[in-house]
Structure formats: C-alpha cells, structure tokens
Amino acid sequence: MQFPLLSKSSKLQKLVLKATEKGTDDVHIDDLPGGAKGFEICAKFCYGMVVTLSPHNVVAARCAAEYLGMTEDMDKGNLIFKIEVFINSSILRSWKDSIIVLLSTKALLPWSEELKVVGRCIDAIASKTSVDPDLIGEALKAYAVRWLPDSYDALVADDYMRRNQCLVETIIWLLPSDKSSGCSCRFLLKLLKVAILVGSGDHVKEELMRRISFQLHKASVKDLLLPAASPSEGMHDVRLVHNLVQRFVARTALSHNGDFVEKSDEKMIELNFEQESTLALGELVDGYLSEVAADPDLEFSTFVELATAVPEAARPVHDGLYYAVDAYIKVCSMHLMNLNLLNGCCQYFLLYDE
Fold first, then answer.
1. Percent of the chain whose pLDDT exceeds 90
2. Where would I find the NPH3 domain in this sequence (predicted)?
3. Is the CB of residue 209 less than 8 Å from the CB of residue 192?
4. Is residue 236 classed as helix, strand or coil in its secondary structure?
5. Can you list the alpha helix ranges (DSSP code H) found in the chain?
6. Which of 55, 185, 257, 329 has the least CB density, counted as fewest CB within 10 Å?
7. HEC assignment per residue over 219-253
8. For 154-211, how does the pLDDT look when each residue is reduced to its tens digit (9 = 90+)?
9. CB atoms within 10 A of CB 197
10. Can you tell me the mean pLDDT for 36-55?
11. Residue 225, CA atoms < 13 Å, CB-side half-sphere
12. Is 140 or 45 the better-scoring residue by pLDDT?
C-alpha cells in the first residue's frame, strides 16, 4: 500500500527509496522551505483534508510544494497546480493581498523569487497604483521597513548589497505616479539615502530627486544628512542638497510665474502657501548649513552656493544664517588655518548682513 504523501511527492519517493537502500525506515527533511506550516498544508492536502489557503500562508505552501515535487507529473490536480490557481485568481487580483504576500516572501528567499512570486506580486501592485496613492505609499513604506536593513553594515554587506539595491529600486518604481502625494518627504529622502549607499544608478536617484523637489520644505535637517558619494567629498552630499533646493525654488517660481495680480481667494491661498513653503525652506537650509559646517572638508564655495540658493524672501531674518556662518568660521580656524578662507567667510557674512 502506497502512502498518500508518496503518491503526490517525487521528493519523498526519492528519499524513501534512498532510505530503503540503506536499510532504514528514517527519512529526514531538514531544509524544507516553509517549515512546519508549509509541510502541514502539503500533508493535509495529500490525505484529503480541508486546506485553507490565505495571503499569510500561501508562499510557505507554494515553496514547500515545490521542494516536495508535488507536480502534475505525479498526480493530476496536484498541490502546485491548486496553489497557482489560487494565487492567480485571488491574490494577484487584490493589491492588499499582493502586498501581504510580498511581505511574506522575504523569509522564503530565494525560493519565492525563483518561483516568481515576488515578481508577480510586484507587477500586480504596480498595475493597481492608481487606486489610492496614499494607501500605496503607506504599503510601500511598510514594505521598506520590513525588507530594508536598519544598520549601515547590513545594508552594504557584500552578500546582500545587490539584493538591497534591487529592493530599493523596486520600491522606487512602485511609487505612486502622483509625485506630490502618496509618500512623505522623509520616506523619499530615506530611500534616496539607501539608493546612494547601495550604489543605485543615476536614473533611480533622479526619479527620487524629482519627487522630493515637490515637498522639500517638509523635510527636516536630519532627513537631509545624506552621505557623500566619496569620502574625499566630505561627510555629507551638500551638492546634492543644493540641487534639491534649486529644483524646489525653480518649481515654486514656475508655479506662480511672478504674477499674482488677480485677487481671487484661490490665488491668495496659493500665494500664502508659497510664502509658507519658502519660509520653511529658508529655515531648513540654514539649519542644514549649521549642521554640515562642522565638516572640515566642506569647501567654502559649496557652503556659499547653498546659502545663496534660496530666495531673499526665505530669510526675513538672518539669525539662522549667521549661526551657520559662525559655526563654519570656527571650523575653518580650528582645522584649516587658511586665512584667505577665513577672510572670505567674514566678507560673505558682512555682505549678507547688508
């Protein structure tokens, strides 16, 4: 009499045959993907018991069934076939279920990737990103928190760097098409930081920078402390921040084109918003300059370019800028001992005071 498990699993048949040849009844399975949960589903199916598949267990079941070789060659309507029908007809039709399944695939790499569960879920989510950009943004944020390592060492470790690069690029291309909603500026800047650290391509960083430029005024100084691409450029990528500021200022200028003659309520609300965002930008840049001033490798020209990138209206008072220049002068005097540079700082400080 053949056990139901053996009739549906080519893997178990091979293991039993091997054990018989060795004169033992023991069969060991130590590397089953999906663990006990996956095996339980496979066993219940083989014995004709009710099997309930859900977004939370379907990946474990699919990987376990693949490992056990539960194919159509073994038995028509076998478990792999049943699971694939469930994934295609149920999971992939719901973006919420697709996200749940996608989150569960991490624990079952590389099986889940080789079985194209990851790719199919990503495609399904991407096709539905027009549903609600805010919901999609929250889902992607949860996905990033679950998948991307928190520590620098884990992020750039040789064994995982390529995988982390793929993950962050996948998240970026799944971002809602509406660049002004769906994801916070903090989240976008975090993705940019990760993209820099794992060596993502320029096109990936460009996409993030375009999105960030729509809401840069909502960032914090800590959010902007992006690592420099090379140690020779200092601790922080000040030029990249300068680029973001330029984009934000240019977009703001284009949005009203300097023409607010019309005194409608909508125009006045728009004007007030632009004023508030411009003031927030000035405060942000001055706070950032104060923070990066401690970097002895920060060039004076780079410091000045960023300081002057914001419009005059962004600084009704100059206290923040004074503090930043003062901090930079102290670093220059302690680390560089360059009188010409010190004079340049002082002259700039005096000119701006006028």
1. 31
2. 102-354
3. yes
4. strand
5. 4-8, 10-21, 35-46, 58-68, 79-89, 95-104, 111-114, 117-126, 133-147, 152-156, 161-173, 185-197, 202-212, 238-256, 265-292, 300-307, 319-331, 339-353
6. 257
7. CCCCCCCCECCCHHHCCECHHHHHHHHHHHHHHHH
8. 888 887 788 888 888 888 877 877 665 568 899 999 999 999 988 888 888 999 999 9
9. 18
10. 91
11. 12
12. 45
CA separation for the pair 279, 273 (Å, rounded): 10
Per-residue pLDDT band for 1 (boundaries 50, 70, 90) equals very low
Asked whether 47 and 4 are in contact (CB, 8 A), the reply is yes
Residue ranges per domain, the chain? Answer: 1-99+107-114, 129-212, 221-354
Structure tokens at 255: 């949005």
Beta bridge partners of 236: 227
Q: How far apart are CA 240 and CA 264, in angstroms?
A: 37
CB 318 within 8 A of CB 274: no
- The full DSSP string for 151-180 is SHHHHH-TTTHHHHHHHHHHHHHTS-S-TT
Joined tokens for residue 140:
């992607």
Average pLDDT of the residues of the chain: 82
Residue 41, token pair as written in the block:
């589903």
Distance CA 181, CA 202 (A): 23
Tokens of 23: 């004169």
Q: Which is more confident, 332 or 37?
A: 37
Residue 60, pLDDT score: 95
What distance in Å separates the CA atoms of residue 41 and residue 8, rounded to the nearest whole number?
A: 13
CA 103 to chain centre: 14
Q: Which CATH superfamily is 1-99+107-114 part of?
A: Potassium Channel Kv1.1; Chain A (3.30.710.10)
